[in-house]
Structure formats: C-alpha cells, structure tokens
Amino acid sequence: MNSLISISPELFLRVLRPYEAGNLFSIVERNRIHLRKWLPWVDGTQSPVDSRRFLEESYSGFLSGDGFSFGIRYQGSLVGLVGFHGFDRINRVTSLGYWLAEDACGKGLMHQSVEACTDFAFKVQDMNRIYIRCAVGNERSRRIPKALGYTYEGTQRQAEWLYDHFVDLEVYSLLVSEWKNSVFSGG
User: Fold this and answer.
1) Please, which residues have CB within 8 angstroms of residue 156's CB and are 6 or more apart in sequence?
2) Among 39, 127, 133, 184, which residue has the fewest nearby CB atoms (within 10 Å)?
3) Is residue 124 left, alpha or beta, with left meaning phi > 0 and alpha meaning psi from -120 to 50?
4) Three-state DSSP state, 20
5) CA-to-CA distance for 8 and 107, rounded, in angstroms?
6) CA distance 9 to 2
7) Interatomic CA distance for residues 28 and 34, integer angstroms
8) Contacting residues for 46 by C-beta, under 8 A, at least 6 apart
9) E strand residue ranges, 92-183
10) Residue 78 to residue 68: CA distance in whole angstroms
C-alpha cells in the first residue's frame, strides 16, 4: 500500500514514521492553545516521547492495514495530520479525524486532504461508508464534510470529554455510491 498521496506540487500526504516524533511534537507545542480548544489529547502530549508512541501506533496500523495517520505537508513543511481511526473490514466502514496548525488554516489544505483521504478510503481501502464527527462549535471542522458532500446524520449529545466538560458531536457520513456520483470523485 502506498504511503504517499500527492495532491499538488505544494501539498501531499505521507504516513509519518516514528523517527518524525520530534517534528510532530514541535508542531503540537507551537499550536497547543489552538489545538486544545477542540482536541482532547493535547494535554497528554507533553514530550516527543508521547508523539513517538502515537506515531509507532499509527505506523504499525499502516503496516497491518488498520487505522493510521497521514502527515499533511505543505510547501515542504509538516502542518497537520489527517487519519483513519481504523477500518471495519466486515462492514466496510471507517472514520476520519484531522487537525491543522493555526498558520496553515484558511488555505483549503484540509479540504483537499480530507478529499484525498475520502478517495483513498473508497478506492484503495474498499470502504462503503466514511464518517466524520465534529464538535458542534467547531465551525472550521464542520465545514469540511459539508463542502465535500457528506450527509449530516445527527448530533451525539455529550459524546466527547474535553478536559472539563462534554461537547456534542455532529456526525457526517458519505457512502461510496454517493462519492462515485460526485464531482469530487472524478466520475
């Protein structure tokens, strides 16, 4: 399985290796306040060792065909992650999660990255359904599945613990039959 998805000359996705933990941690550290607003794992990432553990799991998942994350590289720099939380091979379902460094936001990078991962999940991983869960107040995150033609399925009440409170999560999904007929899939 290919560990690289080229989106444009300036933007590509590549499965990160454990040796890249220092670079990943550096991005988290510089964006801690920005990321902490919506991501429950930020406080648990206190050193490059924590990032290495995450990347070891991700790379192992890539090698075994389970869940893994792509690093988002823009103009040669790592600017975020987009990844699969696992692949249910029996039901052909997966879910996507993503985050971006604050200075990389507003450039369409995540839209393009999620679009590429959607295509990858349907065409390479043979999934039938992909879903994305976004916190109700996280407008930037919610725009991504909406813009890519995902269907809003409903809101999971108090579905995620975010440091000192629960947040509601909106669920968006897309079926392979919808993707095949969309302008995004090229077919």
Assistant:
1) 133, 168, 169, 170, 171
2) 184
3) alpha
4) helix
5) 13
6) 18
7) 9
8) none
9) 93-100, 129-135, 151-161, 166-175
10) 16
Residue 111's Cβ-count burial label (10 Å; 0-12, 13-18, 19+) is middle
Quickly tell me which residue has 């090698």 as its tokens.
63
Banded pLDDT at 180 (limits 50, 70, 90)? confident
Distance of alpha carbon 131 from alpha carbon 150, whole angstroms: 8
* pTM for this model (two decimals): 0.94
- Residue 2's SS3 state is coil
What strands, in cross-sheet order, belong to the sheet with 4-6?
Answer: 4-6, 11-15, 68-74, 77-88, 93-100, 129-135, 166-175, 151-161
CA-nearest of 63, 78, 122 to 96 is: 122
Which tens digit of pLDDT belongs to each residue from 51-105?
Answer: 999 999 999 999 998 999 999 999 999 999 999 999 999 999 999 999 999 999 9
Enter the tokens of residue 181: 């007929």
C-alpha triplet 156, 161, 162: angle, nearest 5°: 115
| Residues β-bridged to residue 143 | none
SS3 of residue 8 by DSSP:
coil
